[in-house]
Automatic annotation (TrEMBL):
Protein name per its UniProtKB record: Integrase catalytic domain-containing protein
Domain named Integrase catalytic: residues: 10-203
Transmembrane segments: none
InterPro entries named among the record's database cross-references: Integrase_cat-core, RNaseH-like_sf, RNaseH_sf
GO-annotated molecular function: nucleic acid binding
Entry's Gene Ontology BP terms: DNA integration
């Protein structure tokens, strides 16, 4: 096995160095009620290279514009991303070209110190070689973990708002998983380190939800 990349073992702020991938498609209801049409939607997953924290965004299609919108929402809530790794999907390559053009246009409009700051705040995009998914194992594993929960929860088509809520709950669950082995000898003081400790200082999920597995689905509300 080869050595891990430098960004995987170098301490850094969460999501300063991230990997990105898409999952889907999933069918989303256009509106509530019976007989409503569905449309395709995709999930963009961002994985922090140093803390393995995950961020999920619902995306309407696979265009570069839709991904840039998801990337802007990601940066607005998680902070600047200095380096982003992904495969060579067409939407990623197109988004990279548009972001580079946007930064170049911003540099032309401002001069002096502001121009230098904008240049430093740009995100450098890295693409793994084509047909080499094993080189993106970190975010591929994140997609697998996300789908593990999605397959056990989705029993019907959801609206855009319901799917967004579900993704936030799955994100909290993924960011509450232990990063280190738990010592079974001391069960009274178990406090595993989780990605949530790097984000908010504690695991996002501390209180378990009520157990509903023995309740018939027909007795539960949507």
């Amino acid at each position: 096995m080869g050595d891990l990349p430098r960004v995987r073992i170098t301490p850094a702020r969460p999501f300063l160095h991230s990997g990105e991938d898409f999952a889907g498609p999933y069918q989303i209801l256009r509106s509530k009620g019976r007989g409503c049409n569905t449309t395709k939607a995709y999930i963009a997953i961002f994985v922090c290279m140093s803390t393995k924290a995950k961020h999920l965004e619902l995306v309407g299609d696979l265009t570069s514009e839709a991904f840039i919108g998801a990337f802007r929402r990601f940066v607005a809530r998680r902070g600047r991303c200095a380096h982003l790794w992904s495969d060579q999907g067409r939407n990623f390559v197109g988004a990279n070209k548009e972001l580079v053009a946007a930064w170049a246009d911003a540099k032309m409009k401002f001069e002096g110190h502001i121009s230098e700051m904008l240049a430093l705040d740009g995100t450098q995009w890295h693409f793994i070689p084509a047909y080499s998914p094993h080189m993106g194992g970190l975010w591929e594993a994140g997609v697998k973990s996300m789908k593990y929960h999605m397959k056990r929860i989705l029993t019907c088509n959801l609206t855009y708002e319901e799917m967004t809520t579900l993704l936030c709950q799955i994100e909290a669950c993924l960011n509450s998983r232990p990063l280190s082995p738990i010592d079974d000898s001391d069960t009274d003081n178990i406090l595993p380190l989780t990605p949530g400790h790097f984000l908010i200082g504690e695991a996002p999920i501390n209180v378990p939800h009520s157990d509903l597995k023995n309740i018939p689905v027909s007795h539960l509300s949507r």
